[in-house]
Each structure stands twice: as structure tokens, then as C-alpha cells.
Design goal:
The chain has one domain: Alpha-Beta Barrel (TIM Barrel), CATH 3.20.20. The mean pLDDT is 96. By secondary structure, it is of the alpha/beta class. The strands form 2 sheets. A 7-stranded mixed β-sheet has the order 1-2-5-6-7-8-9. The chain is globular. It is built from 7 helices and 9 strands, in the order ββββαβαβααβααβαβ. The structure holds iron/sulfur cluster. Iron/sulfur cluster binds next to loops. Keywords: 4Fe-4S, Iron, Iron-sulfur, Metal-binding, S-adenosyl-L-methionine. GO terms for molecular function: 4 iron, 4 sulfur cluster binding; catalytic activity; metal ion binding. It holds the Pfam family Radical_SAM. This is Radical SAM protein, TatD family-associated.
Amino acid sequence: MNTKDTIIYEAHGNLYLNITNRCTARCVFCIKHYSDGVYGYNLRLSREPALSEIIEQLSQTELSKYREVVFTGMGEPLVRLDDVLKITKWLTVRGIPTRLDTIGHARLLYPDRDVAGELADAGMKIVSISLNAQDEEKYNQLCDPKFRKAYQKMLEFARDISRTRMELRFTVVDLPVVDIDKCREIARIYCADFKVRSYGGPA
Ligand code: SF4
């Protein structure tokens, strides 16, 4: 790993984790298409950091000054589910709240596991799922998921989350093709928080 690789970075009073550049989608609005990162941090990894390297960096950080530690970055954290679980447990025993930002393909990545239950047991506080669209057709256009039935399975995973003690959040990007009102209604049905994110890329 290049020593300049950004594994952890801070913004908005939060600490963010960038543990992979792999993803199970290719969203048209992904930052990968127009930038190397966010908030001045380069999030392109020369290789994935080992679990021990992530824990080492966290150990050297004054975690109590952050509101939450967020699995996000330039990739889908759940491709490293077991490491997400171990890091979450490590943070939870230290009293640090955690959030997972995910495209929500957990049921397709791990069809034989109860990912929502495992995340809850590890101590995850909030799961923020990229809803991204009001229906499957628009979702496939915008996100180009690697899996078939990804939209439906993402919603099933959201339902799994809503049945745990974790908070569920849906996000969308404010693109003209996204029907924000319909997406907000989906969030209401799932009793989820709803957040509209600004698109920062080229037109
Ligand atoms: S899910 Fe996130 S990281 Fe993956 S392609 Fe979409 S915006 Fe990029």
C-alpha cells in the first residue's frame, strides 16, 4: 500500500473509513468518474488496506472527538463484510457510534447470511442505503448494478435493517431524473430517514 493512501479521513465532525475501491454498482453519478476523492482527500487506493492496518490507524486517532465513524469512501464497504463487522465491534467496545453507507446489495453478496442481524450484533448504529431511484428501471439506468433484481433485493435488505434496532436511512442524489417525492414516499413506507445528496460532478 502506498503510504499516502487515505484509509481514514475527517469532515463534518465525522471520521470516514475508505477500506475498498471495489463496488457492486457503476453509478453514473459516482465520484470515481470525475474526481480522485472528496474534501481534498485522494480516495484511490493503491491496494486494499489490511484489517490490522485499519485498526492501527484508528488506534492512533482520538476517536472521542468525532460524532460517528462512517464506513463509506470510494467503494462499497460490504464487499469486506467480515472486516466491517470486526471494525464495528472494535469501535463499539470503545463507545464509538458507527454508520454504514451502502448500496445495499448484501442479500446478493451473501445470500446465506443474515447481514442485517450480524451488523446489529456487532453494534452498528445506522445503516444508510443508497435508494437512488423510485423504481427498478431508473435504478438500473443510474446504478448499473452487477446483479439482477438488485433494486428489489436492496429494498429487501432495507426491510431486514428496519426489523433490527439499527436506524435506517435512504439517500438519493438530486438528479433531474430522480423523482424525489416518490423516493421520499418509499422512505416513509420503510420508516426510514431520508436524505437528498447534492450531485457535485459535471452536467
Ligand atoms: S455505489 Fe457508491 S461507490 Fe459504488 S458506483 Fe455507486 S456511487 Fe460509486
